[in-house]
Design goal:
heterodimer; A: 6-stranded mixed sheet; 4-stranded antiparallel sheet; 33% helix; globular; B: Rossmann fold; Elongation Factor Tu (Ef-tu), domain 3; 8-stranded antiparallel sheet; 8 helices
C-alpha cells in the first residue's frame, strides 16, 4: 500500500474515475464550463483522465451576458491553449428568440433564465451527459444529489425518485431525451478545491485574488461590484475596497468579500478562518428561500 | 492526511442527527450563516434547545416539512488529522435500501444505541446489514448516557448484550463508546462524568482508527474503463487502457492475463498523468499499455497471473432489492460491476435473509423492496470477480431494469 496516497490523491482518483465512466458510458457528453474554480479543476482533472487523447467532450459555456470579463478571457485562452472545442450559447439570444422577460430589480440576476439556454444547448447537441463542478458541501439540496443525477426531458431533478448509488458503480442508463448531470467533485469541499489548486499549481482568473474595486453594500451587508447591469439609486453608497471573489457567478448575483489575499496560501488561511459559508457569503440567489437551490434543480438547473 | 468514510445508522430518536450535528458544530465545521438559518428553523419547529442540530442533515423540503430524513445525505468535515465523509442514512423510511447505499463506500459504521433501551431490533438490523456489507469496523455508540446517570453498570450490560448478539455475525472489529450527543459527553472532548471509561472520545477514535484500505486484498485487479487512442500522426499507435487499480499493484514488464478472453500478455508501459511509472498501486488512475496487440474492451479485466479471480456465467450473491416494483421471475435485467455490464437473469431466489435474526428463511421466490435474498444469477457474458468478503471492489454489483433503467438491486458475490 502506497505511503504517499493522501486524501487529495483519493479525491482526484475518484474524480478521474467518474470522468472516465462518463466517457465510457455516454455517446455525447459535455463539460459545463463556467470559468469558475470548480470547473477549472474539472478541466485539469480531464487532462489527467484523457491525455494524450483529446477530451471525449466539448466544453460548453452558458454565457449569461453578466459574466465577469476576466472569467470570459480566461475561458477563451484556456480552450485555445488546450486545443479543445468550446461551445458558447448566450442567454441574451434565448431571451430574444423566446421573447422572455429579462430579470428585474436592483440586481437583475439571469440565474433563472440561464436554465432555458442550458436546456436548449442540451437539445441542440443532443447531449446525454453534462459534467458539472457542483459540490455537496455547497448547499443542502446538493448534499442529497447523486454523482450521476438523472434528469428527465425537461431537465428536472426529482429528489424522491433518485437511483440508489452504491460503491463506485455508476448507472448511466437513460432513455432518449433524458440526460444525466455528472458531478465528479461532489465529495470535495471548498478547502479541498483550494488545496488541490495549490498542489497542482492551477492558474485562475485574477478576480479570485485581492484587487481594488468599487462596490455597493447590499441590505444584507454583501459587497456587489458596480457594473452596468445594476440598477442603483442615489441612496446607494459606493465604497472602494480590496476584495476578491470566493465563487465566480454572475456580476449581478455574486458578491465579493473583503480580502488581502494575494496568494493561494492567503486564500487557504482565509477560508480556514472564515465563519461564513461559500454560498452564504457570496450568493444572493440562495437567499430567496430555504429551498431555493432545490427548486432551481427541479426546474432543470445544474 | 488520510480520508475516512463512515456512516451512521440509527434514527432521530437515537440522537443520530444530533450526534452528527455535534461533531460538526464542536469541530467548528459549521459556518455562521448556516447556524443563523438553523436558529431560525429551530424556532419554527419548536425544538427546546437553542439550535436543533438534527436540522443540519435534513436537506430537502419534504424532509424539513415532515421532520424526517428521506435520503442519504453526505456531510464533510476536516480536522488537523483527517478528512471525514459522513454518509448519514435515515432510520425511518426504506432504511435497508438507504443503509446499503450509505454503507457501500464506508470503512466504518457507527451504530447508535439509546442507553435507556439497550439493544433493540433496529440495532440488530443495522448490525446484520453491516455484516452483510463486510464493514471493516463497527463502532457501537451508546448514547444518552446522561439519561441513565452515566452508569457504568448500564454501559457494561449493553456492551455484554451486544457482544453476545454479534458473535454469529462475524464482524471484524467492534468498539464501544459511551456518550451523550446532546450534552456533548465523549463526542469531541472526553467527558468528566464517566471516570470509569478509559477509551477515547468519538472524534479522537475517528481520527486514529486504522483505515481499511491498509488491509485490502493484495491480488492485482484492474478493469478497463476507457481506451485512449489519440489517432494523431505522432501518436499513431498509441492505445492505452485507462482505469483505476482497485487492488494490488502492477509493474512494468509484468506478465498479465486479460479476462474474460484469457489472453496472456505483458505490461509494456504504465502511465499516470502522462508520466511513465515503474509501478502503480491501489487507487492509482492509470493508463496501461500491453506489449501485444490484443483485443481488450471496456469492462475487461487485466490481472496478474497469480491469485486469478473467478470468471463465471453463474454467480450466487446476496442482494438487496431496492426497487418499488417487486421482482418478476424471468425478468431480463442488466448486471453492472464497475465498468462491466452484461445482460442477466435471476435464475433462482435461493433464500431470504431475516434481518432481525440473520436466519436464512425458505424463499417463496418473491423479492420486494428492502428484501435481502440469496440468489443465483445467470449472465450473458462471464463476470470476472472475487468474493465480496475477500475483495469489496470487484465483488459487488448492481442490477438494472432494462426497461426503466432504474437500479433495482445491489449485490455482493458469495
Amino acid at each position: 500500500m502506497s505511503k504517499k496516497f493522501d486524501y487529495l490523491d483519493e479525491l482526484e482518483a475518484e474524480a478521474i474515475y467518474i470522468l472516465r465512466e462518463v466517457a465510457g458510458q455516454f455517446d455525447r457528453p459535455a463539460l459545463l464550463f463556467s470559468g469558475g474554480k470548480d470547473s477549472i479543476c474539472l478541466v485539469h482533472l480531464a487532462l489527467k483522465a484523457f491525455r494524450p487523447g483529446k477530451f471525449p467532450f466539448p466544453l460548453v459555456h452558458v454565457d449569461t451576458g453578466h459574466n465577469f470579463p476576466e472569467a470570459l478571457e480566461y475561458r477563451d485562452n484556456l480552450a485555445k491553449a488546450l486545443g479543445e472545442k468550446l461551445i458558447v450559447r448566450k442567454v441574451e439570444d434565448t431571451i430574444k428568440a423566446k421573447k422572455l422577460q429579462d430579470a428585474k430589480g436592483k440586481f437583475p440576476s439571469r440565474n433563472g433564465l440561464q436554465t432555458y439556454t442550458l436546456l436548449d444547448v442540451i437539445e441542440e447537441f443532443e447531449f446525454d451527459a453534462c459534467i458539472g463542478g457542483a459540490r455537496r458541501d455547497e448547499e443542502k439540496a446538493r448534499a442529497k444529489e447523486r454523482i450521476f443525477s438523472v434528469r428527465d426531458e425537461f431537465g428536472q431533478w426529482d429528489p424522491k425518485m433518485q437511483r440508489p448509488e452504491l460503491w463506485n458503480i455508476y448507472n448511466g442508463k437513460i432513455n432518449k431525451g433524458e440526460n444525466v448531470r455528472v458531478f465528479p467533485i461532489s465529495n470535495w469541499t471548498e478547502l479541498d478545491v483550494w488545496n488541490y489548486i495549490k498542489r497542482e499549481k492551477i492558474e485562475l482568473p485574477s478576480i479570485y485574488f485581492t484587487h481594488e474595486r468599487e462596490c455597493v453594500v447590499t441590505e444584507h451587508g454583501q459587497l456587489m461590484c458596480t457594473n452596468e447591469f445594476l440598477k442603483l439609486d442615489e441612496t446607494d453608497v459606493i465604497v472602494t475596497k480590496n476584495v476578491r471573489y470566493r465563487t465566480v457567478g454572475d456580476m449581478t448575483c455574486t458578491a465579493a468579500v473583503e480580502s488581502e489575499a494575494y496568494k493561494i496560501d492567503d486564500i487557504i488561511n482565509e477560508i480556514k478562518e472564515a465563519k461564513i459559508s461559500e454560498r452564504g457569503a457570496t450568493r444572493m440567489d440562495d437567499r430567496v428561500s430555504e429551498a431555493a437551490m432545490e427548486d432551481r434543480k427541479k426546474g432543470g438547473y445544474f | 492526511m488520510k480520508l475516512l468514510r463512515f456512516f451512521t445508522a440509527g434514527n432521530v430518536d437515537d440522537g443520530k442527527s444530533t450526534l452528527i450535528g455535534r461533531l460538526l458544530y464542536d469541530s467548528n465545521s459549521i459556518s455562521t450563516d448556516i447556524i443563523e438559518t438553523l436558529t431560525r428553523q429551530s424556532k419554527t419547529t419548536g425544538a427546546n434547545s437553542e439550535i436543533d442540530l438534527a436540522l443540519l442533515t435534513d436537506g430537502l423540503r419534504a424532509e424539513r416539512e415532515q421532520g424526517i430524513t428521506i435520503d442519504v445525505a453526505y456531510k464533510y468535515f476536516t480536522t488537523d488529522k483527517r478528512k471525514f465523509i459522513i454518509a448519514d442514512t435515515p432510520g425511518h423510511i426504506q432504511y435497508t435500501r438507504n443503509m446499503f447505499t450509505g454503507a457501500s463506500n464506508a470503512d466504518l459504521a457507527i451504530i447508535l444505541v439509546d442507553a435507556r433501551n439497550g439493544i433493540t431490533d433496529q440495532t440488530k438490523r443495522h448490525s446484520i446489514l453491516s455484516a452483510i456489507l463486510g464493514m471493516p469496523h463497527v463502532l457501537v455508540c451508546i448514547n444518552k448516557m446522561d439519561l441513565v446517570n452515566y452508569s457504568e453498570a448500564r454501559y457494561k450490560e449493553i456492551e455484554a448484550d451486544y457482544l453476545i448478539f454479534a458473535q454469529q455475525l462475524g464482524l471484524k472489529t467492534i468498539s464501544f463508546i459511551p456518550a451523550s450527543a446532546l450534552a456533548g459527553d465523549n463526542v469531541v472532548t472526553k467527558s468528566d462524568k464517566m471516570d470509569w471509561y478509559n477509551g477515547p472520545a468519538l472524534l479522537d477514535f475517528l481520527e486514529t482508527v486504522e483505515i481499511a484500505e491498509d488491509k485490502r486484498s493484495e491480488a492485482s485487479r484492474f478493469q478497463v474503463q476507457y481506451i485512449i487512442r489519440p489517432q494523431t500522426d505522432e501518436l499513431h499507435d498509441y492505445r492505452g487502457f485507462a482505469g483505476k487499480i482497485t487492488s494490488g499493484s502492477y509493474k512494468k514488464g509484468q506478465r498479465v492475463l486479460v479476462l474474460p478472453s484469457r489472453i496472456e500478455s505483458e505490461i509494456e508501459k504504465i502511465e499516470i498523468n502522462q508520466q511513465e511509472v515503474e509501478i502503480a498501486e491501489i487507487n492509482d488512475p492509470v493508463v496501461i499499455h500491453l506489449k501485444d496487440d490484443v483485443d481488450v474492451s471496456r469492462g475487461n479485466s487485466i490481472v496478474s497471473l497469480e491469485h486469478l479471480p473467478k470468471t463465471e456465467k453463474e454467480i450466487t450473491a446476496t442482494i438487496c432489492w431496492m426497487d418499488n416494483a417487486a421482482f418478476i421471475p424471468g425478468q431480463k435485467i442488466l448486471l453492472q460491476q464497475n465498468s462491466f455490464r452484461t445482460k442477466a437473469i435471476v435464475k433462482e431466489v435461493i433464500s431470504k435473509i431475516d434481518i432481525h435474526s440473520f436466519m436464512e428463511l425458505q424463499s417463496d421466490g418473491s423479492m420486494k423492496l428492502n428484501d435481502i435474498c440469496k440468489v443465483l444469477i445467470k449472465t450473458a457474458e462471464p463476470v470476472t470477480f472475487d468474493a465480496y468478503a475477500e475483495n469489496r471492489a470487484i465483488g459487488a454489483f448492481i442490477l438494472v431494469n432494462e426497461n426503466t433503467n432504474n437500479t433495482i438491486a445491489a449485490g455482493t458475490i458469495n
